[in-house]
Amino acid sequence: MTGDHQPAAEAGPTDPSRLLCEPYLLDPGPESGYVVWHTEDPGNGHFVLVGPGVTGMTDWQAVDAATDDAATGPGWRRFTAQTRQLSRTREDAESRVAGRAWTGPVGRPVYRQLAEITGLAAGRTPYRVVSVDDQGRPTVTTAYSIAPAVSGDRPVRLLLTSDHQLKAMTAANLAKVAETVGVHLDGVLMAGDMVNVADRASDWFDCADAPAFFAAMTGRAATTIAGRTWRGAELLQHTPLYPAIGNHEVMGRWSETASLDSQFNDPQPADWDVTTYEELFPRPRSEAGGPRWWSRTIGDVHLITLFVTGIWRPHVTTGAGTFAEGPAVLADPEHWGHGRFIFEPVHRGSAQYRWLERELASEAARSARFRVVMFHHSSHGLGDNSTPAFTDPVQVVERDPDTGTVSSVRYAYPLAEDHVLRDLEPLLSANGVHLVHTGHTHLWNRFRNPAGVNWLETSNVGNSYGAYDVTSGLSRPLPEGPDLVRQGDPGGLRPVVPTIAPLTDPTGAPLPYVASNDVTVFSVLDSAAGVVRSYRFDTREPDSSVLLFDEFPLA
C-alpha cells in the first residue's frame, strides 16, 4: 500500500473498532520500551511510528510512512511489530459482546502485535500505531507518548491499583486518576485480578455491559453511574503497566465443553494455567521466574513483583469448598477442589523465595531510595479474603469403617504456617522494604509493622465484601477455630486510620478502611515527596470533587 490515497472513496483510517484495544506500554529500558496492541486477524502489517514528526502527520501520511519503503523520515522512525496469535482466548454463552453471541466455548482469534522501540531519548517521545488488516484497511491511532525507563536517581509517580474485574466503578476510578494526577505517570502497579476469567477475550477487550480491562485503562469504556457515563482514561497509552498475577489470572483444567467460568473454578494443584496472562504480558520478566516474578528499577524505586496467590473457594458449598468437599463431589475425588491451595510456592526454601532473597540483597535493591514489593494476596487485611491463612491446606479424609467410602474431607489452615506472615514478612522487614502493595479483598486498608514496613491494599472499585473490624462490628462468616480470625487483621496488626479525611461511622468515629460499592479509591506513590497519597470519590455524586483522605511517609 504505497503512493497517493483517495480517502473520500473509503472510510478513513481511524476506525478504532478495527483494533481490539488501544496500544499499551510495557517494560521500558534505558533507551527502549514495548508497544503492544491486539487485533482479530493477523493483518498485512503492523507498525509504530516514533518521533516528534508524527504529531503533524495526517492519518494518510502516517499510513504512507508506515507502508512505504523508507523506514525513517523527517522527525520519525518506523518500527515493525511482531505478530503472535494468543493460544487460549475463547468465548462462550456467558460472553457479552455487542452484536455477537457464542454457544461455546469457542476459540476467539486474538493476535498480539508487539514492537520493541529502541533508541529512545530521555523524556517523552510521540508515537502512533498504524495497523493494516487482512483486507488492506489501515487503522491509525492518535499520537501518544513513550518514554524510556526513568534513571535511577530521579523521582517517580506510580499509580497503585488492583482487582478491576470489570467492576462498575473502575471507569470512574480511572477517569478521576487522570483528572487528579494526569496520564503521564511512570508506572501503573497492578496487583492482580484484572479480569474475571483470564481466557475470556471479551473480559480483556470488549465486554458490552461492563468495563473490560483494556477498555477502561485506555479510555474506551462506557459505564453510566448516577447519570454520568465514564470512559476510564488514556493511561496505558502513555504509562507502562507493571502487573502481578492474581487468582483471576489463573485458569483451571481445559475443557472443550464446560463453560469458561467452570473451567476457571476447576484448577487442580498440578493442573492450572496462566498462559493467557503470560501472552498478554510477556514483559517484564526475569530469568528465574519469567513473567511470573521479576524486578525492575523505576527511577528511585526498586519494584519486586511476586506470584503470591491461591485458588478462591466458597466457604460453604455443595461442591469444592474452602473448608470441606461438599456432598456433591464427596464420592468423586476427580472433582475435589483441594481447598484454597497455593499455585506457586513462596515459602522459605522455594525457588521463588530463594530468588527473592537474592533480589533483596542485590545492589539495585540496596541502592534504591525506596523498595516496593507487590503481590496479590495479603495476609494483613480487614477483608474477607485475608482468611484463612495463606498456607498449604491440611487435608483430613474420613471413611466409613464398614464400607471404606469417604464420609468427609476437611481442610485446616494453621495460622502459624501462613507463608506470607511466617516467611515473607520477616524477610521483607529485615531488608528494609518500605511498602508492600497487595489486593484481593476489594477494599482500602493499610498497616505498618514494627519494622516500619507499610502494607497497603487499595483495590476498591466495587464488589466490596465488607471490612471485618471492631469499628464495623462485623465478623467474618467462618467456622469456629483458633486459626480462623473472625475480626481484625489475621496478622495481628492494628489498621491505620487515614490521616486526613477518614470516612466515619454513624456516631462520627473515624473508620480505618474504605469498603464500599459507591466510594472508589486510588493511591499514588510520589517518591519526590516520599509519600503515598490515597484519594476517594463518591460515584453517587458525579459532580463532586476527588478527596485526598490519607497520606503517609514511606521512610
SSE blueprint:
Layout: E1 24-26, E2 33-39, E3 45-50, H1 59-67, E4 72-73, E5 76-80, E6 82-85, E7 90-91, E8 106-107, E9 111-117, E10 125-132, E11 138-140, E12 144-146, E13 157-161, H2 170-181, E14 187-190, H3 201-204, H4 213-217, E15 223-225, E16 228-230, E17 241-243, H5 260-264, H6 275-280, E18 294-298, E19 301-305, H7 351-360, H8 363-367, E20 370-374, E21 394-399, E22 406-412, H9 419-430, E23 435-438, E24 444-448, E25 454-458, E26 519-526, E27 531-538, E28 547-553
Parallel strand pairs: 13-14, 14-17, 19-20, 20-23, 23-25
Antiparallel strand pairs: 1-2, 2-9, 3-5, 3-10, 4-5, 6-9, 7-8, 10-11, 10-12, 13-26, 15-16, 18-19, 21-22, 24-25, 26-27, 27-28
Description of the molecule:
- This protein has 555 residues and is of the alpha+beta class.
- The chain folds into two domains: 140 residues, Sandwich (Immunoglobulin-like), CATH 2.60.40.10; 334 residues, Metallo-dependent phosphatases (Purple Acid Phosphatase, chain A, domain 2), CATH 3.60.21.10.
- Helix content is 12%, strand content 24%.
- The strands form seven sheets. Strands 3, 4, 5, 10, 11 and 12 form a six-stranded antiparallel sheet that branches. It has a six-stranded mixed sheet with strand order 17-14-13-26-27-28, covered by helices on one side. A six-stranded mixed sheet has the order 18-19-20-23-25-24.
- A hairpin with a 2-residue loop joins strand 4 and strand 5.
- The termini are far apart.
Radius of gyration: 24 Å
Count of β-strands: 28
Main β sheet profile: 6 strands, antiparallel
Name given to the CATH homologous superfamily of the largest domain: Metallo-dependent phosphatases
